[in-house]
Design goal:
By secondary structure, the protein is α/β, with parallel strands linked by helices. It folds into 2 domains: 1-53, no CATH class; 63-209, no CATH class. 31% of the residues lie in helices and 20% in strands. It has helices at 2-12, 29-32, 35-39, 55-62, 120-134, 174-187, 212-227; strands at 18-22, 46-50, 71-75, 80-85, 94-98, 103-107, 114-117, 141-144, 171-172, 193-195, 200-203.
Amino acid sequence: MVENVAGKWLTRNHRKQIELVVAHSHLHSDHVAGDEQLKNLQSPSITIDFVPATVEASKKLYRITNWPDGIGSVDLGGRVLDVIAIPGHSPVSIALYDRRTAILFSGDSLYPGRLYVHDWADSVKITQRLVDFTKGTLVAHILGCHIEQITTPYLDYPIGTIYQPHEHGLAISRGDLLELNEALASLHRVSTRLALRDFSIWSVPADSRLHGKAKEKFESHQKKQREHMWDQSAAQ
């Protein structure tokens, strides 16, 4: 896919080569699983600057001298993205703000789905940091990395769902960010789950892997969906 898209861009722009920067919103496996494929990409027309998901590499790329309180940036060539360090979901989490489109890319810190809170203090800090950054700033949309919410307010798909025909749109608003900020403050670090209109807050332990009955339910749900891959109405 990378070679195909890049090849079309090169043809359209009458270029022979393009340099790509591969960076990450954070270091969880569902976001870095394709790294090895990119590292092994052999194409004379594509050079890749691979940035590991570490604090030091992120500080260097985004020129953040005071991690995590400083605001960094990256120039894509006449198009600047602001970079906000938001360690919480993972130690190296970042958010990106595109000045041209006014889109805030929030990684796994805010999206229409289950927001997993491992450390309440960190979650409060990073959410407030995003609120402060966007104050007085145009925010057209907030785009996260997952969709687990259903179009019906307050409802989400079960964990492990593969087929989501009625999923919520990816884009949410700064109003959702403010709602998250207020909800975290009101819960006072109480270990709980709270369903809101377009997302939910899930307090989970540091080791949030599925165990016991939860794991059995997850595996059973996915097995049923795969068995009815071409007739998903029977798997609901």
